[in-house]
Amino acid sequence: MRAVLILCFLSCFGYLSQGEFIEDTITYGSFPPGFIWAAATASYQVEGAWNVDGRTPSIWDTFVRTPGTIADQSTGDDACLSYYFYEQDVALLKSMGVSHYRFSISWSRVIPNGVGASNPLGIQYYKNLIAALKAAGIKPMVTLYHWDLPQVLEDQGGWQNPNIATWFEAYADLCFEQFGADVEYWITFNEPWCQSYLGYGSGSKAPGIKESGTQDYIATHNQLRSHAKAYRLYELKYKQTQKGKVGITLNISWAEPEDNSTTNAAAAERSLQFAGGWFANPIWVNGDYPQVMIDLIGRKSTAAGLPQSRLPVFTEAEKTELKGSADFFGLNFYSSEIVREQLFDDTLVDYTTDKDAIAYQDKENWYGTASTWLRITPWGIRRMLNWIKDRYNNPDVIITENGMSDRNGYLDDSMRIYFYKYYINNVLKAVQDGVNVIGYTAWSLMDNFEWERGYLERFGMHYVNFTDPAKPRIPKASANYYARLIQKNGFVPEEICDSATVY
């Protein structure tokens, strides 16, 4: 197995003659002029104030109150209290020199009933945040949906209800109208794969439904329909005056074939299509799902005796609306997997078996983090970016999340510096490969509520003391390192050798 892994990664890593692993080499150089440097958060993870000023519960407010769902039994009720301390957040961003701040809007804060009347106090919060950013010379990059669906809409079926596309369009319309004059980049959905599979398939995230192979496909279908409606709305009603750009953010792990066999190469490609192509193919290719998904799920649905495929079907009008419905490709990238073919029983009903492949990580050679799913593979981001270039006609790409977790929150977070050093350098290499990467966003600005892991895993470049009511934010070493990269707009020798050597 070790020999196989060595063969897989020779193009991105060097090896000693004995087969011992050595580091990827650093490439010096600058990112293009005007390159976006950003940091990110999400509403439920940082805002707190969960029942304040008219905000109603989201699916996460419900989920965290379900016994056994959160590792440390915590909630996002307070989190970082950014609803009150947003000016401190802006000060942190300004000190790092970022050009953009990626944050998300809480749907239930601005439209408490999910549809209908808006909430002036909720709208004013985001106007205040945007004004503070503008005063600091920082541009907002706004995500409309980062998993916190109003519970009142989930009670009506949530992402299983086809009417949600109309509900989302109305929500997007309000946001474009109220905030769009100051927003350059809009992201309709953050990681719809997670909302679909983890929310409606495995049930590990809100709303906690375990119906994989059926409801996860429906959830994706309705998120894509919603995305297209929001994009076309902006295009027709706001783009000419506001001149913003609208995209979507997908999370994709790089899939490396276990060996050079054609069967495992095909299995790795299927994994990428089931993870990324599931959403990207309808938008960047032909308005429909990847053919491999249509064929496999259709065949397995027939084998299970179903009258039609478990994969929903777009109307011709929906295909037309979807195709070309993004001005940029948002990529959240964290880790990689090794993939081999595994043929499953065709009668099984499950997203994970539909692709006839299994994936694992190299725990022996890939550095770990506090998150079991996240092992450090900098070479993967370069390969992932080139895959996007080759499959989708080289769209503009913004890395909308990239970062690593630890448990201790140490201010001297040397491993996070290592992570950013090698991942960002591989983004630079992808730019030199010809990939149209126009921006990079570090996850996260500060420690926050890490979903079902609660406060056990910390991704922040700033430490947050969650036991202190004031939620003080303290810069970690990685914040300073990231600031220097931004200042230099890339890698120069003195920056590499200063506090970013191999640990």
TrEMBL record:
Coiled coil location: none
Biological processes per GO annotation: carbohydrate catabolic process
Active-site feature positions: E401
Reactions the enzyme catalyzes: Hydrolysis of terminal, non-reducing beta-D-glucosyl residues with release of beta-D-glucose; beta-D-galactosyl-(1<->1')-N-octadecanoylsphing-4-enine + H2O = N-octadecanoylsphing-4-enine + D-galactose; beta-D-galactosyl-(1<->1)-sphing-4-enine + H2O = sphing-4-enine + D-galactose; a beta-D-galactosyl-(1<->1')-N-acylsphing-4-enine + H2O = an N-acylsphing-4-enine + D-galactose
Enzyme class: hydrolase
SUPFAM superfamilies membership: (Trans)glycosidases
GO molecular function terms attached to this record: beta-glucosidase activity; galactosylceramidase activity
Keyword Transferase recorded: no
UniProt entry tagged with the keyword Signal: yes
InterPro entries linked to this entry: GH, GH_1_N_CS, Glyco_hydro_1, Glyco_hydro_1_AS
Signal peptide location: 1-19
Name assigned to this protein: Cytosolic beta-glucosidase
Lineage, opening ranks: Eukaryota, Metazoa, Ecdysozoa, Arthropoda, Crustacea
